[in-house]
Amino acid sequence: MTQIDEKAFGAYVVESVFLGDTAVFALGDGTIRRVTGEDEQTTEVHAGAVLAATRSRDGKALITGGDDGLIAVTDAAGTVEAIAERKGKWIDQVAGGPSGAVAFASGRRAAVRLGDGRERVFDLPRAVGGLAFAPKGLRLAVARYDGVTLWWAGTEAAPASLEWKGAHIAASFSPDGKYLVTAMQDSQLHGWRLDDGKDMRMSGYPSKPRSLSWSVKGRFLASSGANAAVLWPFHHKDGPQGKPPLQLGAREVLVTRVACHPREEIVAVGYQDGMIMAVRFDEEEVLLRRPGDGPVTALGWDDRGTRLAFGTEQGAGGIVTVV
């Protein structure tokens, strides 16, 4: 049984997360909406659009970057801290790391603001396509054209490179840190086993797989970009190589967003027509939201896995409670 509390935010929903019991929505109009029970509050954060947003590593704040050049951290109470600014730049990539570290990027420059306020800056020959911190330490993956650069932001060590032809537009480490996977402009995923650099190709998508989510314990990587959620198995010795993926929640509509449950082998699947389903890995399906209000652009579970915050391209959003 499910209950849905839906809102009309009136702006594109860039991200939806839970900070404790508060659902937090980053919107394209530069505001952040916070919903706790019946209470809804709006916080003005950016003087322009939010271009990128993600939950901090400790789950206590939402990190946002905007077309105003601001990088901000907002907590569940609506307290905003502007941690960095790049006047005249669009901040279109952000990532949360350990001990309060935040990575952000604009164009060909990536930066890490450490928890003590120091900044480290790293320039690349081509634009940054995605950022991701490793599960442990200040190792940052910077997706780019023709591969990924691995940068140890807390040291002076020289960066390392993982090469693969094409434009890499997102990056994600497996929870155990053994694998790094990127989404690519040419509608495929590419992976590396980090201990030996072994390559892994995951293809067959009709569209770009922009949304990536690791299942509990990192056994599967869920992805969007097809007419089902595509889940690649990573619990074998060679990862997904030679293994067929799970295809869950298949419809005649493209999957635009995926979010794996924090405790069970379940994935929330958002579609281009606004519909949302929860699907167990044994293929049992539960409808969470009927179609409407454009493509699903944001999905995020709370830490207990009983509530799901969602948002759409046309500005609908809200909370689904699974009871």
From TrEMBL:
The keyword Transport does not apply. Coiled coil: none annotated. The keyword Methyltransferase does not apply. SMART domains: WD40. InterPro entries: WD40/YVTN_repeat-like_dom_sf, WD40_repeat_dom_sf, WD40_rpt. Keywords: WD repeat. WD repeats lie at residues 172-202. This is WD-40 repeat-containing protein. It comes from Bauldia litoralis.
